[in-house]
Write a structure and sequence with these properties.
The chain is mainly β. It has three helices and 13 strands; from the N terminus they run βββββαβαββββββαβ. The strands form two sheets. A seven-stranded mixed beta sheet has the order 11-12-7-8-9-10-13. Strands 3-4-5-2-1-6 form a six-stranded antiparallel beta sheet.
């Protein structure tokens, strides 16, 4: 498991005092609002102020005192310690789900989860055990369990058959 996870990307400076506008890559502002230290290009920064306004995240960092210093951070990724990122008990980090086996509630292993595209409904990509790939939306009524400790995600077979799309020669 990675200790530091990406939580955002600096879009641009905001104002003249070093504040930056950040594209939030976490679920929501509540998951990052209590974070006090971040890493950018391997260097640690203390968050001096953090606010969420009009759908954007704005932060001020110790050592970034003006617009010129903030400009040097443009397009840089922001990382935080996974223990500092707030999440609910039923939430999981994408990093932890990637590589998990996808298993039907019938016990059949489908393959390995290779990618997750986040949107209103997360889209999962799976490399099938027998070759090929499939893609499906992770709907609430599809989930049986996320067993991250055992590297396994279990879904309902009947619902999976309704929503899966097989690509590149894949099929069950």
């Amino acid at each position: 498991m990675q200790k530091n996870l990406i939580i955002g990307k600096i879009l641009k400076p905001h104002g003249i005092k070093g504040e930056v506008k950040v594209q939030l890559l976490a679920d929501d502002f509540d998951s990052v609002k209590k974070i006090r230290n971040v890493k950018i290009d391997g260097e640690e920064y203390k968050i001096m102020s953090s606010r969420f306004a009009c759908g954007d995240w704005y932060i001020s960092l110790r050592g970034i005192a003006d617009r010129n210093a903030a400009e040097l951070l443009r397009q840089k990724e922001i990382f935080a310690d996974r223990d500092d990122i707030a999440k609910s008990a039923e939430s999981y980090f994408i990093e932890d789900v990637l590589g998990c086996s996808l298993v039907l509630d019938s016990g059949d292993e489908i393959g390995k989860i290779t990618d997750i595209v986040c949107s209103n409904v997360d889209i999962y990509y799976v490399s099938l055990t027998g070759g090929g790939t499939c893609v499906f939306p992770m709907l609430k009524d599809l989930i049986v369990s996320f067993d991250i400790e055992n590297n396994k995600v279990v879904v309902k077979k009947s619902r999976f058959d309704e929503v899966v799309l097989y690509e590149k020669g894949g099929a069950l």
